[in-house]
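Lecture notes, unit on binding sites. The following record was shown on slide 14. It pairs a sequence with zinc ion.
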Amino acid sequence: MRTSPLRTHLLRTLSLAVLTVMVTSVSFAAPQVTPQAHAATSCDDGGGGKPQDERALKKASAKRQKIQKDLDTLLNTGEVLKAQIEETDSEHEMLVTRQRRFDKQAGAAHSELASRVRRSYMLRNADPVLTMLSATDAEGVVEQSRVLGMLAEGSREHVERASSAARRNHAAAEQAEHVAEQLAQMEHDYGAIKGQARGLLEQAKEQESRLAAKVSLQRAANGSGCPLPPGSVSGGLACPVDQPRSYTDTWGAPRSGGRSHLGVDILAPIGTPQRAYENGTISRMHSNSLGGISLYLRGDSGNEYYYTHLSGYVSGLSAGQRVTAGQHIAFTGDTGNAAGIPHLHWEVRPGGGGNVNPYPYAHAACG
Ligand SMILES: [Zn+2]
């Protein structure tokens, strides 16, 4: 046998204990404050939301990140568990197959033995060793030829050793089956724990989202627009989202309901300032279930820019207002169908017409 089923069983029981402890600690872990979580909003110092709400938001973000990390670890452990189940299944299968072969060979050997005894009896030449062996239960004996060879030598000791190997195989097969049953139970428990962790993550996201919306409204009410660092507007264009941000070209990628992606998603922490891309006018501010809080900027070039999933507008912003490139107009959020994934979904419509891939537009200003 390649591995001891008992040893693997112990290891697996231990890993379940680790899972349980981990999930329990998720519920009771003290939130750790991650300093970079809201680094992007450091310009709100002194003019931001209420201090206790700012603190609560930081705590909620840290908690959500911690649960996310634990869930990732849990999912990795789940992969290991799955691999162990597959390994045990194949080990069990191998032992059962070997047992069947033993049984078949033993059966054949037993028949041969019986016929030899009958022949011996009929020949009135009963061999005492043969007679004794035929009366012994020879289940689980190795290859027929080997048994017959050993019988020819009259080696009872060898036959017994073979029998005991077969019995050990049988015991190992039973043990493997037992381990497989326990693994199935663990898989069930793992599923429940995973569900629990996912529930906790959802709760944490909701809490963070609620606080972020509250805080960004407070920041906006305080008029805490962030000034743009000098030199950030190049060629009259400003990146729509401050650092830290990330984005890739996902133009035309499939989306829910058979839609395809008509924008660029610029990921950034909740509350990260958003800027007017070029000089122009805020043409419309509205909210709907898909986009959440949104605005349209009509640039002086004639191009229209759509900003959506915002957590809020900068205080006092209104439709018809003139803005300059780089002016702080809104805060990054996850409203609409972006819950849990704060980002700016940004679209570009040249001359106010149909959408074009906004990635090159973003790239021109954001690098
Ligand atoms: Zn998008």
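Take-home: The two ends are 60 Å apart (CA to CA).
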